[in-house]
Design brief:
Structural class: mainly alpha
Helix content: over 70%
Shape: elongated
Order of helices and strands: HHHH
Largest sheet: none
Number of helices: 4
Strand content: under 5%
Number of domains: 1
């Protein structure tokens, strides 16, 4: 068993599950979307992004691209949340504001799903030598 592959798979799947946890729920209800979970999703996605550097294969390039997309959208979602929070003076986000944040995390979730699918395909197609 390759420990490096285990850690890589762990962070790819953790990034997807944290993003999914934030995304699930009514898009317009700020009470069901936790900002700490969004922050954790951003951090884990950035860690997964760094781990994908250095792989010179074609599938590695696609892994990196999906991670870049997910990280960019999650950072945008977190930045938007912070902006809305500062503009509103700490009050709960409005329906339109939380919908924008959750929509961005939905795009990141799609990129994470593609990344997990690639990881599974790569693992299944791996042949021992």
């Amino acid at each position: 068993m390759n420990f490096e592959k285990v850690v890589f798979g762990f962070f790819v799947v953790l990034a997807a599950t944290l993003n999914f946890g934030f995304f699930v729920g009514p898009i317009d209800d700020p009470r069901v979307h936790n900002e700490i979970e969004l922050f954790a999703a951003v951090i884990v996605n950035l860690i997964a992004l760094v781990m994908k550097f250095g792989d010179r294969t074609q599938i590695g390039a696609i892994h990196l691209a999906t991670s870049l997309v997910a990280s960019l959208q999650l950072v945008a979602a977190a930045s938007l949340w912070a902006y809305f929070d500062n503009v509103s003076g700490g009050e709960m986000l409005t329906t339109e504001q939380i919908s924008s944040v959750v929509s961005l995390s939905g795009g990141a979730l799609l990129a994470n799903i593609i990344s997990v699918t690639l990881l599974v395909v790569e693992t299944v197609s791996f042949r021992r030598q």
